[in-house]
Design brief:
It contains 4 helices and no strands. With 86 residues, it is an all-alpha fold. Helix 1 runs antiparallel to helix 3 and helix 1 packs across helix 4. The protein is elongated and about 50 Å long.
Length: 86
């Protein structure tokens, strides 16, 4: 393996790790958001919880996920396949 292949492999590995980290955080956010929306729907959420949701409590992590996915959409299919494990 030459230096270029080594560097490319490291880069793919870094992208894979970043994707898994972002995906896992995004999944946690989705679950927390769903639980909170269910609590609101059932009338069990506090005003503070409703205010946090309206203020975008989860939007920063959602944006990180969307930004990463948009970045990956611009990569060649081969890189996407390697990162996403297709």
């Amino acid at each position: 393996m030459d230096v270029t292949e080594e560097t490319a492999e490291e880069t793919l590995e870094e992208l894979r790790e970043r994707f898994i980290e972002i995906r896992d955080r995004y999944a946690e956010v989705c679950e927390a958001s769903t639980r909170l929306c269910d609590r609101i729907g059932d009338g069990l959420a506090s005003q503070k919880e409703m205010d946090e949701l309206q203020a975008g409590k989860f939007s920063d992590r959602e944006q990180v996920y969307e930004d990463f996915m948009n970045k990956m959409d611009k990569k060649p299919y081969e890189i996407q396949a390697a990162v996403f494990g297709w």
